[in-house]
Amino acid sequence: MLTTIEQLEALYDQPQERALRKEIAYVNEDYRAFIEAAPFAVLATSGPDGLDCSPRGDAPGFVRIVDERTLALPDRPGNNRLDSLRNVIADPRLALLFVIPGVGESLRVNGRGRISNDPALLDSFAVDGKLPRTVLLIDVDAVYFHCSKAMARSKLWDPAQHVERSQLPSAGEILRRIIVTNGGGQFDAAAYDRDLPARVRSTLY
User: What parts of the sequence cross the membrane (predicted)?
Assistant: First the structure.
């Protein structure tokens, strides 16, 4: 078991200079292109109740570049657990990983978050007249791209590797098993799964 940084570093080569130089403290023209093309990102936060890693997605460019040191991420309807936002209030440090379908490289942004409910800002993110409850403003500390090795190893974008959804437990089956196991009574998994697609469509925004 490794217990020191020295033990860890002894197992690895020194990072190449270009791996370090690709990190900058602002969104330049190249990194802007990645953010504006990304329809999906993963938001990582930390707080007193633990860590959170949450998916975020919308039309490409859904994370707005306010300026080279500031991003804005609208909080669209979800499960209302508020895990990420609770964490940001307790500890503003966060990270975003932007992913673009078909592209090997991903983009990391490390920064600090602030939560706004300014009416004008919310209105600027309206979709079909529906506003987000809040907008997460991100003060950028570091931006850098990850090479394509992870995507290549996982074959993430290879259609031949896509998994049929029916091969996995459905959302209703997962909930039913948890509820019954924990003594929560009966749960109609079939009805839940039947109504889920319409419920998702009607609550996207």
Answer: none
Sole residue written with tokens 């939560």: 115
Cβ pair 94, 45 in contact under 8 A: yes
**Residue 42, both tokens:** 């993963």
For residue range 145-203, what is the model confidence (pLDDT) as tens digits? 999 999 999 999 999 999 999 999 999 999 999 999 988 888 999 999 999 999 999 99
* Amino acid 184: pLDDT: 82
Largest separation between any pair of C-alpha atoms in the chain: 58
pLDDT at 185: 85
Write down the residue that tokens 């697609």 correspond to: 197
Q: Which domains does the chain have, with CATH numbers?
A: 17-154 (2.30.110.10), 163-202 (no CATH)
Q: Are 131 and 125 within 8 A, CB to CB?
A: yes
Predicted structure pTM score:
0.94
In angstroms, the CA 88 to CA 54 distance is 13
* Contact present, 109 and 72 (Cβ < 8 Å): no
In Å, how far are 61, 120, 133, 157 from 127, measured between CA atoms?
Answer: 14, 14, 12, 29
**What single letter denotes the amino acid at residue 86?**
R
Looking at residue 95, its amino acid is A
- CA-based end-to-end distance of the chain: 47
